[in-house]
From TrEMBL:
The keyword Lipoprotein does not apply. Its main location: secreted. InterPro entries: Aspartic_peptidase_AS, Pepsin-like_plant, PEPTIDASE_A1, Peptidase_aspartic_dom_sf, Plant_Aspart_Prot_A1, TAXi_C, TAXi_N. Residues 99-444 form the Peptidase A1 domain. The lineage of its organism: Eukaryota, Viridiplantae, Streptophyta, Embryophyta, Tracheophyta. Residues 1-26 form the signal peptide. GO terms for biological process: proteolysis. This is Aspartic proteinase CDR1. GO terms for cellular component: extracellular region. Belongs to the peptidase A1 family. It comes from Sesamum latifolium. It is found in: Secreted.
Length: 452
């Protein structure tokens, strides 16, 4: 990049004008209202995309990460239900993630590309100086180059909200954070406040949020992708971005995920831009459970065509046992949908009876129901509807059956004895709005490749 020298007076004048513009805009949009790009980690839209990797190699990697993430989130869930409430924070919030977003940190702002994750609370980025940092493509954030960076005291409410196992004090009484993930990845560093700037992807506007609590990581390693510099925590916990900005954005954010083969980026919105309305919107309550990072919904069952299967489905049984509220989480970072094993078995059996095709085994040994594509490439399956409390969400066939190898399509549900997860593959081409003020999630069928 070329650098051009300009008289100091002109630099100061330009900076003052831009600052006034940002302050005015921030005042105008103090109730939120900004939309940003969400870029899938395997998308050619990423600046460091590797074109040598094939589409099916990307898919295999995606599915493997999904299995690992499910195991990690399940571990977090069951440990949070144990006798030690701090064990969850100390062990794991999430692994990896599927989408990245650009944010700007500091004054002057420095662009950061980080994983947007509804399964994490703490937002953090790798910082100089590094005791140990994983390799990343972009330069490290340097807190000494910004005028708005401030350390957080270890006696502060923000520090204490991390839990006693995830925070400690340095010699200057500053708050130190420690986050350990289920795959033994970790991030350790200083808890601080900084100015965050969100540049709109749909206009030339920027929205400034001062004094956002985040982690400045000086010791980070593990399986993090070198394209990302950290994590943007979108979970429901106290230190997440959406909770910190709750009064500013009205407790509302939404995203619209494009299909895996789309040439367009997905979008995430905060504030008024995130309100999901219209006659075709269906909403379901968010259920409060521990850990509060996750967004729990109640799945009452699924249906295949005209045949309904209850969440607690038992083959050859007429049992009408009650369904537990908050029995599934909705997650932006898990690709596949994980169902209780008995419900999955009922779904697979019902689909097999309804599909006229040549059943084959999954070459990778992951999926249970796969078919050989006919020569004309057409594959027909009955519609699958996920029945949440108050919301019937009809899934698209392009998400329920995916071509995992050349000529082989497989059902993208997986049985689980652990945590049930509604994955992002089945959220694609829905505008999904999180309303934390009214504790609900809304679904609106949408072509996410088109501008709203």
């Amino acid at each position: 990049m070329a650098f051009y020298y300009t008289p100091l007076s002109l630099i100061l004048a330009t900076w003052l004008l831009s600052t006034i513009s940002l302050i005015s805009l921030s005042e105008e949009t103090k109730n939120g209202g900004v939309t940003l790009d969400l870029i899938h980690r395997d998308s050619p839209l990423l600046p460091f995309y590797d074109p040598s990797t094939t589409h099916f190699e990307h898919l295999r990697s995606l599915f493997r990460r999904s299995i690992l993430r499910h195991s990690a989130l399940s571990l977090a869930y069951f440990k949070s239900a144990s006798k030690s409430p701090d064990l969850f924070e100390a062990t794991l919030t999430s692994i990896g993630g599927a989408y990245l977003m650009k944010i700007n940190i500091g004054t002057p702002p420095v662009e950061i590309l980080a994983i947007a994750d509804t399964g994490s609370d703490l937002t953090w980025t790798q910082c100089m100086p590094c005791t140990q940092c994983y390799k990343q493509k972009a330069p490290l954030f340097n807190p000494t180059n910004t005028t708005t960076y401030r350390s957080v005291s270890c006696t502060s409410q923000q520090c204490q909200s991390l839990g006693v196992e995830s925070s400690s004090c340095d010699r200057s009484n500053g708050c130190l954070y420690q986050v350990r993930y289920g795959d033994r990845s970790y991030s350790n560093g200083n808890l601080a406040v900084e100015t965050f700037t969100f540049d709109s992807s749909t206009s030339n506007e920027s929205v400034v949020f001062p004094k956002v609590v985040f982690g400045c990581g000086h010791n980070n390693d593990g399986t993090f992708n070198e394209m990302g510099s950290g994590i943007v925590g979108l979970g429901g916990g106290a230190v997440s971005i959406v909770r910190q900005l709750e009064t500013t954005i009205g407790g509302k954010f939404s995203y619209c995920l494009t299909t895996l083969d789309s040439k367009s980026s997905s979008k995430i919105s905060f504030g008024p831009n995130a309100i999901v309305t219209g006659p075709n919107v269906s909403s379901t309550p968010i259920v409060q459970k521990s850990p509060d990072t996750f967004y729990y919904l109640t799945l009452e069952g699924v249906s295949v065509g005209n045949e309904a299967l209850a969440y607690n489905y038992i083959p050859n049984s007429n049992s009408n046992s009650s369904i537990e509220e908050g029995n599934i989480i909705i997650d932006s970072g898990t690709t596949l949908t994980f169902l209780p094993s008995s419900l999955y078995e009922g779904l697979e059996s019902t689909l097999e009876k309804s599909i006229n095709g040549n059943r084959v085994s999954d070459p990778q040994g992951l999926f249970g129901l796969c078919y050989r594509l006919p020569n004309n490439g057409e594959f027909n399956a009955p519609p699958i509807i996920a029945h949440f409390t108050g919301a019937d969400v009809e899934l698209t066939q392009e998400s329920t059956f995916v071509e995992v190898e050349k000529g082989v399509v497989c059902l993208t549900f997986v049985p689980s004895q652990d945590l049930a997860i509604f994955g992002n593959l089945h959220q694609m081409n829905f505008l999904i709005g999180y309303d934390l003020e009214n504790q609900k999630v809304g679904f609106l069928p949408t072509d996410c490749s088109k501008p709203r």
